[in-house]
Amino acid sequence: MYNPSSLKAEEFINHEEIIDTLAYADANKDNLELIDQILEKAKERKGLNHREASVLLACDNKEKIEEMYQLAQQIKQDFYGNRIVMFAPLYLSNYCINGCVYCPYHISNKHIARKKLTQEEIKREVIALQDMGHKRLALEAGEDPKNNPIEYILECIKTIYSIKHKNGAIRRVNVNIAATTVEEYRMLKEVGIGTYILFQETYHKESYEKLHPYGPKSNYAYHTEAMDRAMEGGIDDVGLGVLFGLEMYRYEFAGLLMHAEHLEAAHGVGPHTISVPRIKRADDIDPTAFDNGIDDETFAKICALIRICVPYTGMIISTRESQAVREKVLKLGVSQISGASRTSVGGYCEEEPEEENSEQFDVSDKRTLDEVVKWLMEMGCIPSFCTACYREGRTGDRFMSLCKSGQIQNCCQPNALMTLKEYLMDYASEDTKKIGEALIQAELENIPKEKVKEICKENLEKIEQGIRDFRF
Ligand code: SF4
Ligand code: SF4
After folding, report:
1. Ligand 2 pocket, residues with Cβ under 6 angstroms
2. I need a labelling partner for 427 at 20 to 30 A (CA). Which of 99, 104, 192, 438 fits?
């Protein structure tokens, strides 16, 4: 029985409810009256539920799709302005005991190089990331209690936060590790992580079990209920995601929204972020072997609808996607992107020799961070290196209520400008710096509160004099 506030996976992600939802969406995909009503409701900016959202996803009326895109762009503008938060993934270890058939780190892949960073190697990786200008990381590690126990992950996080190289600092560490126990989530919270990210991969239980034939991850319920345990352990910023291309995208989309509705119903706070990865080529993995791949147009529609359905949830896109695709979905609602990513273990310090391939997937966007920052600014976006909220204790429902009241805008805009200024002073090329300085001057005018604008101007001058790390 479907029950969004239940803590049982099969009740809050209920297969029959998804099947009924898809049938309802098919039956109404040409019902323009209903579609207009749903779009009207979406304009209130309070989100849509999985049924309403699924009708919009099924609708193939060109005019209505255009309306969805317009609305997504408007919501993006109202909630996130033209700011894009930057981050980079850091792969700690690719030892893994799971059998995920779509990931090259699965235990049976014998021709991939297995690596695990020592604390010394982490220092070198982090210095390389700081030297690019990164302030926010997403840690990645396979599941292997012997090689990557929680103690190892905690030690890595402490090492990362302790490294201060020149003006560099990693100020927020988000963590993407396997589903674990309440006690271990509590440890992660205590060591000061930002968001706990865990992709569901697929919400379709039968497919999930086929795609995860062995290892701890094969337990669908344990994996699906991970965010509930994370919240019980005190982590209130959690990041959802599915790997598009594994199961029918309409099923995944409904499941993803049901998961968001469940977090809201059971814990009073929805997901902090949603990631939208698509399956990519990698060692031992051929994406064409998965026949549920989605084309760029459908992908863009999914991004636009996520923006409309969960306006307060950040949306993340990685370098799996090409520059062209990233350009399109940035406008439709994406709020965070990675730049200059390496998806191999130790990849920031050294290029890997061909025979030592330890990448999790092929990167499509291979530009440097400076190139990505410049490209964003040339499109009128503000690259933001802001990490302020969790450092100021603005997490979970406190964060969400600031978002819902619109007050967060008084923090995001000045923080974006001040962290961009730091980037320009410490890491940017001359060209990028020139564009950035002009952008900062123009964007100062978009800070809503006069007082905040004044403080921001003063802080920009102090950054010019060499002082760092201002935040609202
Ligand atoms: S997806 Fe994660 S759990 Fe699965 S094989 Fe890859 S690293 Fe291991
Ligand atoms: S102020 Fe908070 S919500 Fe805004 S960009 Fe910074 S961390 Fe994100």
Report:
1. 85, 384, 386-389, 408, 411-412, 415
2. 192
